[in-house]
Amino acid sequence: MSNNQDFTLKLMQQVSDELEKSNAKIDQLVIAQNDLKILIEKQKDQSKRQFDVLTRHQGKYIKENLESYSDNIKELILSREPVVNETHNSQYILFGKDSPFTSKLLLSLITLILISIPLFKYVPSYLNERSVLKEDLETYKLFYDYVFFINYKTENELPSNLTNIINDIKKRDSTYINFVNRQRSKYEIHLKRESLKSELQKLQE
Global pTM? Predict the structure, then answer.
């Protein structure tokens, strides 16, 4: 029986040491995770701004070129004399000396199409990302409204404490951010301890 107690105490000491190591690693992971989140948010904001700028520039470029091409086509059509074909056998020539389109105009149209391809490629993913963000926003808003009105129903008055908290969070108050990070770390350690206790009980049975 003494051997079992010694074994159990030794095992629990090892578990305690491992928990301390795990706690230190978890703290490092939490810090790294927060840094990574901040970096990802910055990258997302920067990518969105770059995409918006690119979209505006391409849209402006496309509009200007379309107006220019439209004017050129009108001039070409007005400058050509009408051709009367008695046999009513019409032939439409796209390339060659008899073509109503100049090589410069055709080259410009091809360039416009090639420039537009990336725009159409990234628009669906951008719209999908906005849809996901909108859905998350609606979910968090519904959760906030639910908690707000549950407190209102219980206290029969406006829950000013919740209103103050949400206002502080909107201001990115570090008090709440640090609190959440600390509690998350403690909760994860608690889950690990419970799991280890369960394993110890299985070993002692």
Answer: 0.29
